[in-house]
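2024-03-11 09:14:02 INFO queue: dequeued item HTH-type transcriptional repressor yvoA, len=252
2024-03-11 09:14:02 INFO validating residues
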Amino acid sequence: MTTYNKSTHTEPICKTTDETSVPVYERIKRYILAHIHDGRWRTGAMIPSENELAETFGVSRMTVNRAVKELAIEGVLERKQGAGTFVIQKQFSQTFVTVHSIAEDIERMGKRYHAKQIFGGAQAYNTLPAEAQKLFTPQQTPYRVDVVHFGDDVPLQYERRWVDLNLVPKFAEQDFNIVSTSNYLIAQTPLVRGLYTIEALACPDDIASCLAMPAGAPALCLRRHTYSGELVVTLVQMWHNGANFSFTGTLE
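2024-03-11 09:14:37 INFO prediction written
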């Protein structure tokens, strides 16, 4: 018997992170990331000084310094002595990374792999996120699955995928606790081309809780859509905790 939630409306069953349990410096990081993500602080913009942030949060400058320092190490901010702290350009397109299955990547890390499907359900076109509405047509039948991938029982990737049931009609009948979504699609339909990007983004609350991360913490998000003929057959968002997962590729 599968244990995931199969519905047209209900969201994945994952506890959200309690705001009061998040350290203050993490909340400051989350605040900074949110302002960058929503465009209020754009690339090259100077963020408020540590003294200003300390006053905003009612904490010591040392606490703010830790948050800013960590974001600088993570490549989100650049600290210029005597000038201030600035937002670094983080969005980029990847055209040279070979993407393996998550199971292979985790096993290559020497970890024991397993997956847990936590959601499966049809989704009406008008309830799709904006990105999905641009790729699918109203005539298609998108079905969403959410799967968490583990290495040694640690959640390493949250996969949120939409698949057109018109093109892959038996997709909704599969148990993705034991079947790979990618391998199943490859076996069922010709995938002729695709496009993917990797971005550093603030992790949504529901996904962050499943990855054991503070809500809004920086995460690596790989987004990929793939075509079968002239139609998009699948769109997937793969979220990773940057603290314990990385992408590696080769230039040839």
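2024-03-11 09:14:37 INFO annotate: The longest strand covers residues 154-164.
2024-03-11 09:14:38 INFO item closed
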